[in-house]
Specification:
mainly beta; four-stranded antiparallel sheet; globular
């Protein structure tokens, strides 16, 4: 079965057509036409996303940090106003997807929470 997915890698968007997807022990194997590539992903986690387009002016957490619900994780500047971004739940930061000074769009993942 063919499916088309939109993915973002290092801020660049790609459209990918996959022929088959299977999952074995936390690793997804995506088989494209003529090529099979294993892709590691975080499962069961939650993405903390940008509520609007802007620039990340501060990141308050690092990968591996434990955070409490409603703990400040980043600060975004949009239209000369600062917006604080908080963890929706308690957990551990599994990935920091942006760096200070990065331009983000609405819905871009700032940090991943496991």
């Amino acid at each position: 079965m063919k499916k088309i997915y939109k993915i973002k890698v290092n801020g660049k968007a790609y459209e990918v057509e996959l022929q088959e997807i299977s999952s074995v022990q936390g690793e997804i194997k995506a088989e494209t036409i003529g090529q099979s590539t294993p892709i590691s992903i975080a499962t069961g986690g939650e993405s903390v996303t940008a509520p609007m387009p802007g620039v990340i002016i501060d990141i308050k957490v690092s990968k591996g940090d434990s955070v409490a619900k409603d703990q400040l994780v980043a600060v975004l500047e949009a239209m000369k106003m600062e917006t604080e971004i908080f963890a929706p739940n308690a957990g551990t930061i599994t990935a920091v997807n942006v760096e200070k000074g990065a331009q983000v769009n609405l819905g871009d993942t700032i940090v991943s929470l496991g």
